[in-house]
């Protein structure tokens, strides 16, 4: 493991109109680290994932991934906002799984899995296919490879979505409330898959979730967000048993009492 | 009051059908042009290409608010003066295609807007190139949904083709007029021309309504 | 070339009264027929619905040019008298666009929430009171954007009247065209397009004002632009 951080947010500010969602945000994530972001809605946690996925642009500050700037590029010695071409290059190393799965309904499972590896990474059809088969077996859906997403349950679709993200062999994986849209009985299957992935790979994982039990087993670090700032950052055991910040205490009390 | 001459009617039918062939041909060719050009307009507008975007918007707004007849005159009478001589049918198809492209571009836009935002985001997350986002993800989802609306545009175009007789295209109504000029009996030719339109557009409209039910109207 | 511009424009403008007369007349007949047929499509009596449906399908299914030529050439042969060209034009414009308008009315009245209808029944209102005091006012607000599109379609169709000798704008243009040079021909057609565009904008402006007034009467804000019907051209 290198000591160079995998993800760096430096002085990041993000506004939507007059609404300041993130202000002067600084944090780093080490390679292969699993970090969970918790906090109330609107605290900015999902925005962080969206900024990393270049679905949004920063208003101020910089973001770097794997030692390269993501939000900006170097041009003639200064930093300018990154253009689409540059972003696409750096973005290839980052994968994301969405709350609503977002599988492409006009393709089969196989199609979904080989689309990006062939078109973006330049893999041959055979290589992409064998990778797809391997990943689907890993997520336990090998026999569904030629089905259309609409014929799968929510949990199955989400597992395919995870496989699709992994097919790109990302260095960083972003998980945006990936079990929130699932029926309760399907949640466990997806979470156990994520635990396996966490244990067997070196992927740096940033996760936004309400599943506190999962956050506790799975993460190396938990960051509590409120009002666009990190108000507490600690190992899960400490965070959940002895939170320091009053707001964290309040939040955890409410969330843990309910579940 | 209505004296209908069946012998006469049957005698002129082949000529009218010949004219109808031209009407159908103009519709098919015009539709192909409208479908292709409309898609280009829609994609340009969606991608917000800097100058092109406003030009397309301006053109579409102007072109669909003004009469097809005047546009056909413009294409047929002005182009020869700049060296482009088109046959009446070609000029007519061009006029139809340009005019209806303005309608189809709106139809495509509605279809594209109906594709969930999550699809665009997933495509971005996978770093798919723009061409694949459109060809592999968005258009395959947008277009099936708007096929009924596109079909309705074809039917509308079919019914507007007769105005091309003003630029000397010999389609079915022009044929009816020619027949009348020779025989001084307008009843059969024009009535039959009307019935021929009904015979094609009514079943077509029914088919499209069935298609709408299957595809889910936008 | 450019000294002729003044003559060109004034000649074209001389066609505007005919265009406007045809449009206004056509719109009037359209409104009458749209409501008559539209409400008839919702009637209890199967016979009334059938007549309305036949009218709608017939005029939507045939070409406007055919209808125009039929009224102008065939009708005189059958009944012996000739309708004035402008009259024939207004009649056809109204009959044709009234058929499309009937569907707009039917759709809008049908889209008023069922609860409104039930509320009227609970208050023991008569069918006429139901329709005119409650359902129609709400439905009218829904209809206005579609009618806006329809009326602009009608305006565009007034150009067809030039084919049956009505001396409106397009007709005047064609009278001038044979005598002109290159640049002048293009100018004529462009000026014609601008004239129609201006008239279309006037129609839209008027309809928006009416929409504002009608919405206020039922206590609603007018439909935002984004929700307007996206399928221009004749709604079918």
Succession of helices and strands of chain B: HHHHHHHH
Count of separate DSSP helical elements of chain B: 8
Instruction: Give the mean pLDDT of chain A.
Output: 89
Count of domain modules of chain B: 1
Largest sheet data of chain B: none
Mean pLDDT of chain B: 92
Which regions of chain A have little confidence, pLDDT < 50, spanning 5+ residues? none
Count, helices of chain A: 9
Separation, N- and C-terminal Cα atoms of chain A: 36 Å
- What would CATH call the architecture of chain B? Orthogonal Bundle
Low-confidence stretches of chain B: none
Strand content of chain A: 25-35%
Structural class category of chain A: alpha/beta
Q: What portion of residues of chain B belong to β-strands?
A: under 5%
How far from one another are the termini of chain B?
A: 48 Å
Mind telling me the CATH class of chain B?
A: Mainly Alpha
What would your notes on this structure say?
The complex is a heterotrimer of chains A (259), B (218) and C (236). Chain A is 37% helix and 26% strand. Chain A is built from 9 helices and 12 strands. In chain A, helix 6 links the parallel strand 9 and strand 10. In chain B, 46% of the residues are buried. The mean pLDDT of chain B is 92. Chain C has a single domain, classed as MetI-like fold (Orthogonal Bundle), CATH 1.10.3720. Helix content of chain C is 75%, strand content 0%. Classes of the chains: A alpha/beta (259), B mainly alpha (218), C mainly alpha (236). The interface between B and C is large, with 54 and 47 residues.
């Amino acid at each position: 493991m290198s000591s160079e951080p995998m993800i760096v947010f430096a002085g990041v500010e993000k506004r939507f109109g007059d609404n300041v969602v993130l202000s002067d945000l600084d944090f780093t994530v080490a390679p292969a680290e699993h970090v969970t972001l918790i906090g109330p809605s609107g605290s900015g946690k999902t925005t962080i994932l969206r900024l990393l996925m270049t679905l949004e642009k920063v208003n101020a500050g910089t973001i770097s991934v794997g030692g390269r700037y993501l939000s900006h590029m170097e041009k003639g010695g200064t930093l300018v906002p990154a253009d689409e071409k540059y972003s696409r290059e750096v973005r290839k190393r980052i994968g994301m799984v969405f709350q609503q799965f977002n599988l492409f309904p006009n393709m089969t499972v196989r199609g979904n899995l080989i689309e990006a590896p062939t078109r973006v990474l330049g893999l041959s059809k055979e290589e992409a296919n064998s990778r797809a088969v391997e990943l689907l077996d890993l997520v336990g859906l090998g026999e569904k490879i030629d089905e259309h997403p609409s014929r799968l349950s929510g949990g199955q679709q989400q597992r395919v979505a995870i496989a699709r993200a992994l097919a790109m062999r990302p260095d960083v994986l972003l998980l945006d409330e990936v079990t929130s849209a699932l029926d309760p009985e399907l949640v466990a299957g997806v979470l156990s898959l994520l635990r396996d992935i966490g244990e067997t790979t070196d992927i740096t994982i940033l996760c936004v979730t309400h599943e506190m039990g999962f956050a506790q087993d799975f993460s190396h670090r938990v960051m509590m967000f409120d009002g666009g700032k990190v108000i507490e950052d600690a190992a899960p055991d400490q965070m959940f048993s002895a939170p320091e910040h009053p707001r964290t205490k309040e939040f955890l009390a409410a969330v843990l009492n309910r579940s | 009051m209505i004296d209908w001459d069946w012998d006469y009617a049957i005698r002129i039918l082949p000529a009218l059908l010949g004219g109808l062939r031209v009407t159908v041909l103009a519709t098919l060719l015009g539709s192909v042009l409208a479908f292709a050009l409309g898609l280009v307009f829609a994609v340009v507008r969606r991608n917000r290409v800097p100058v092109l975007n406003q030009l397309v918007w301006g053109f579409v707004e102007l072109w669909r608010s003004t009469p097809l007849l005047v546009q056909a005159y413009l294409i047929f009478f002005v182009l020869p003066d700049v060296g482009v001589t088109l046959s009446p049918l070609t000029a007519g198809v061009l006029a139809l295609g340009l005019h209806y492209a303005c309608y189809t571009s709106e139809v495509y836009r509605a279809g594209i807007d109906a594709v969930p935002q999550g699809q665009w985001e997933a495509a971005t997350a996978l770093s798919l190139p723009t061409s694949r986002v459109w060809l592999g993800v968005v258009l395959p989802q947008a277009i099936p949904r708007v096929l009924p609306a596109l079909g309705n545009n074809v039917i509308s175009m079919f019914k507007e083709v007769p105005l091309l007789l003003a630029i000397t295209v010999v389609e079915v109504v022009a044929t009816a007029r020619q027949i009348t000029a020779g025989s001084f009996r307008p009843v059969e030719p024009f009535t039959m021309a009307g019935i021929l339109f009904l015979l094609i557009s009514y079943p077509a409209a029914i088919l499209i309504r069935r298609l709408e039910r299957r595809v889910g109207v936008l | 070339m450019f000294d002729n511009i003044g003559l060109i424009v004034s000649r074209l403008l001389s066609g505007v009264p005919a265009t406007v007369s045809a449009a206004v007349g056509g719109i009037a007949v359209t409104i009458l027929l749209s409501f008559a047929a539209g409400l008839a499509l919702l009637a209890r009596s199967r016979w009334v619905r059938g007549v309305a449906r036949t009218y709608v399908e017939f005029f939507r299914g045939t070409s406007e040019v055919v209808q125009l030529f039929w009224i102008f050439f065939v009708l005189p042969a059958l009944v012996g008298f000739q309708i004035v060209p402008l009259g024939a034009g207004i009649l056809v414009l109204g009959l044709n666009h009234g058929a499309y308008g009937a569907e707009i009315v039917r759709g809008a009245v049908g889209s008023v929430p069922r609860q409104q209808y039930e509320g009227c029944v609970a208050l023991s209102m008569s069918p006429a009171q139901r329709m005119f005091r409650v359902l129609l006012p709400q439905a009218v607000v829904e209809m206005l954007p579609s009618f806006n599109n329809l009326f602009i379609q009608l305006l565009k169709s007034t150009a067809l009247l030039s084919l049956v000798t009505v001396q409106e704008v397009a007709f005047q243009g064609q009278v001038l065209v044979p005598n002109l040079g290159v640049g002048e021909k293009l100018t004529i057609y462009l000026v014609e397009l601008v004239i129609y565009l201006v008239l279309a904008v006037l129609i839209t402006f008027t309809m928006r004002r009416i929409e504002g007034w009608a919405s206020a009467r039922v206590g609603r804000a007018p439909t935002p632009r984004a929700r307007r019907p996206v399928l221009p051209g004749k709604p079918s």
